[in-house]
Amino acid sequence: MNRRWPLLIALALAALAAAPLLSSPGFLNTRAGGDSPFLLFRLHQLHAALSEGVFPSAGCRTRPMVWAIPSSTITRPWPSTSRRPSRGWASPTSLASKLAHLAGFLLAGGAMYAWMRRYTRSRWGALLASAAYTFAPFHMVNVYVRGDSLAEFFAFAWYPLTLLAVDRLLERRSGPRAAGLALAYAGLLLTHNISAFIFSPFLLLYLLLMGARRAAPLRGYAAGALALVLGAVLAAWFWLPALGELHLAQLAPSTTGYFHYSNHFRGGDLIQASLAFDYAINPDAPLTPFSFGGVQAALAAAGATALLWRRVARREAEPPAAFSGALLLGLALAAFLITPASRALWDSLPLLAVVQFPWRFLSVAALFAAGLGGYAADAFAGGLGRAAGRAPLAGGGCAGVGRGVRGHGAGRPAP
Fold this sequence. Notes:
Helices cover 63% and strands 1% of the residues. It is mostly helical. It has a two-stranded parallel ribbon with strand order 1-2.
């Protein structure tokens, strides 16, 4: 049970993040600028379409009302559908949406813990990474500020799940593990096309770096590439028509004027330096909720320092250099794409304008920042272990001691 406590705490913290949703009566009305009522309209239309036997119901052609916004065809079919069963159980529409958000928090927190547990010396490091990911400001902004971005919120769960699936496949190439990566990637594609679009280059970079440290890297690359292609094929019924019909959608209102990416870079306001994150939307205020939090940045910096200290000063082999590089490089690239310094890429790369907001990369940055933050707790746990004159315990507490005692015969002292 001692081994499970950190995971249980991670899930409890994820549930705590959803507490404002569950504790308030009725439907949550988000802060200024949020579009949470749109979720109700879309769920109503989804229910109407499914009642007529239309499945999948993802676009305006199959929905009866003008509120069937084309973005459901282009960006997000699955999260809306995920709320449908609760309606069948005669639960209120608002409760169905709240339970969907609760599931998203639990999945993201649990997936982050599982991914980081492979690379941290202690479970408490994985716990801190999970907590940092759960309470990442942009994760909370998608629920409590933007309101209608359920799909982008759910993408947070698929990010660590796909990376975990890559690790498992590279560790041992097999059909079930390749299928796991394919299903995880298909899930991301079916959840939010834009999130899948911006995360795919980071996913390929991770595959490249982690595959290089394995024996026969080309075989690992081939297995990973085939799994990702299979995932894309499984989701092709959604993303292929979305791309093919992109020219039929009225995209100009959502990619020009206020929504043009050039209006949403972050420079000096990339990080809120205050201890408490300010979620208020005020055009006249110097702070914006679409930014990094001060605690989030400090935790990532502390974890990066601890990680580099372990590798450079102490010359430790764990975590692998490839994983350390993936965390540092991933965070640096995501942060770069949010700043005006990346304007040339935004101007030249096709389809990047459809992303609209450079601060969407905060989701990717939150993933790698939380991973780095986990090493702050890992270094602390290692320091306690060295202070006690023993190696740090992988499970924390007395679990390691118990295993040592059981490994020796009765009456024989453990070394």
